[in-house]
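Re: your question from the hallway

Yes, I did run it. Sequences:
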Amino acid sequence: MYGKFINNWTIQLKKTILPLLILNMLKQDQLYGYLLIVKIKECTGFEITEGTIYPILNRLKEDGWLDFKWVEQKTGIPRKYYTLTTDGENMLKELNSNWNTIIKDINSQIEI
Amino acid sequence: MKRSDFDSVEAYKIYANYIEQVNDIISMLPKDDVLDIVNEIDSHIYESFICNKAIVSEKERIMTVIRNLGEPQLYLKPVIAERQLRQAINKYNIWGILRGIWATLLTGGQYVTTVIMYLFILSSGFLVIAKIFYPHNTGLFIEDGSFAGLGFLSQINAEAVELLGYWLIPVLIVSCAIFYFFMTFILKKIVRIKTKISLKNKQI
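Structure:
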């Protein structure tokens, strides 16, 4: 009965936190689109349509939080590596802090 | 990817069709943007194709890769809208800004059409009921020879004249029917285009 609601709610939540997840992954290392998707799937089990990551990366780049560079490969096709900009790093600190506060506040209510 | 990256001609055709589709969708963007987007998708397909070697058939493998990546017209729409908008803002191009906003709106075109349709039908239904219970406050009003309002007015000026009387009810019902068929036609068109693109993807 409530399965549909929970399912929709979970999908929306995952969509919302995807940029936060991407920024945090790029804080650890520079990554290209496909590897980012593989890591997201590995770490979270999120089943995402792979193409959906590119509008998010594009938006984060347009906002100035990400930068990219094309890197030639010995074999195969060049990869587009994304990195966090300095502004992106500073913004992410604040974003993570907000996220932790929200989680803490929600958890305090859930425990009641 | 190159033809030489594939053993199967069929698999290469599927790949080439997909890339052609991407090129068509983003053709209105500047050349640099087109190149950047196509190269990134190409790179993604290549990496995914290499990593999915467990699927022996190249045809099956490329189809899986493309299915996982999704329909380009869906995931590229926000990218196109943002890049068009950015380009227009940078060049102070008003027409480009409007096109970018329009492209953003089209992303949710199906939902916008549905909302407008139901809003119109609901408000017409409300007016039909209001005309029965508040005949003097509901209708098409003119004042000093010019349009003063259509709908329910709580306060009416002494100079205001209601034109339609109870004809408002059939007029609203008929316009609702016309509007319903028109919007349904548009919705069907949108769905048909989406289905066509989706079928094309499944075929390739």
